[in-house]
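Self-study notes.
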Amino acid sequence: MDDNSRAVVGHRWGGAEDSVRLAAALRPALAARGVPEGVYVDNGSAFVDSALLRACARLGIKLIHSTSGRPQGRGKIERFFRTVREQFLVEVDTEKVTDLAMLNRLFTAWVEQVYHRRAHSETGQQPLERWLAGAPFLTPTPDALRGAFRWSATQRTFGARRGRGKCLGARRGCFCLP
């Protein structure tokens, strides 16, 4: 969500919160709406993951984490979540929504046709109208996005281990190669 306009710049419903699902929401959002100066996030595991830190660094985005235990710093997004519960989720017919893809299509339609076009109680303007009136964000090239969201692994060689070859450091231990 854009702090100034309250426009929803990216979203995705998923079964869990992890870095893969975050990238699946963030990458198309950046392609469509552009690269912001900063992103303000909570301290959930997906938001402290090195993949997000690397993607933001490669795109020149300042990653800002909210203070743990202080929900006041997240008031705007928490208020948006309440709006989603009160205005979108109450209208969703759970008998007809068969999968997450359908839920995402319905949510996108609600955001674009309802939420973005109603005057916001705090700003007095429609979020989309206020977003479009602001300075445009630079849109990253497809190559820049590919590079920012490319999965990578780092391996370090520690030397021979028991005469069995090289030992590569990994997060959860040491793997010996012949």
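Second protein, same conventions, sequence then structure:
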Amino acid sequence: MATTLVSRANEAAAGAVASNPRPTRRPYLHHVDLIRTVTFSLVIFVHCLTQTTDEFTSLPVNTTSLLLHFTRNTFFALTGFVLMYQNFDKTDFSALSFWQRRIKLVIYPYVIWSAVYWVVNMWLAGKLTEIPTSLTNFFYQLGWGLSGFQMYFLFVMLQVYLVFPLVVWLLRATAGHHLIVVGVSLVLQFAITATITHWNPPASVATHWWHHYATFIPYQFYILYGAVAAVHRQRIGTWLRGKGWWLFGALIVTAAIAVGSYLGGVWFAGKPVHDNNSAFYPTLVPFLIVAMTCLYAVGLHWAENRREHAPRFARAVKYASNRSFPVFLVHVLVLTLIMYPQSGGTSWVRDVIPQPWATLVVYLATLAGSLLLVEILRRLPGALYLTGRPRIPFRKARTDRRVASAPSTERPRREDAVVS
């Protein structure tokens, strides 16, 4: 019975097997490449924006950041989608084998880069000589994803990997009732965000309460949303077709609600311009859902209708998607080094380059520098531990370029498989 339910939920893979007498891998989801590329690019942009502006007093910057919080949640929805696509129909799925295979791709880079960022922060603070006596601080930061301001993403991802077997069990056990599961999760999401933004915890709880953003709990709906979307991707894809204007209208309306609520709080309720909990405003939830749905629809439309007609762009998307995770790991280091030169106590960027050009220049420089660093790291021994991706031998550079220019029907190598 379980096998029947699983097979029924993955019609696309079943169709591919039926049309080919030899077993094949699951169809490669090219739209996921575009979604991942856009998501990671915008996450990096937000970091560059906040580092090159006064995020604590600028209303336009915080309004922009408010809406771009959808990238954070898309990151986790994409994780749920990819993991479920790869594992839902596996009749021999094992939690232990899943953990052994997936966790190493994140935990090694997480520990290594947490150490790198901690050392860099000690250097910036002029405390390099205190490193041997400050290891307790390092392990504290390691335990909460605090070494770099993007490292909590990886910390949460590790938690998602730990609970993912339960998600597989849940969706298999509730086959035919996934809409109810998503609905319950959405109600819970509103309750969680309301608690985060409106509850003042007692002192005994407040010490650890502020770490809520580094747990999977505030993102539970988006993880499940992505996982359910993977199971029903064919039906969802069919439903999305022809609804571009409806989606655009929903995006505008929900964005207006989110921004209007934020501005109203600042102008009339005395709320601060910059709020560390802005990513968890309950009024932002509808926009987050619609925004990631719109991005999915755009990616699907591109993959089905535009990709084969723009091969250069398709190759660029595939390249960017393949490098996105290691670029995410290193970009804060590159950004820090770009912003480090000081002029009168502030970064030279703010004094020399006017806005909005400062943000644009730093963003492009961060992307270029990160890609260059990743190309080096991917070719070093131990690349898997440094970048979470397999090593690329130097001698295969030309071969990789030929593979990238191959016809779109060619199946990607295992190392190019969708990884989140």
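Instructor comment on the second fold: The longest strand covers residues 342-343.
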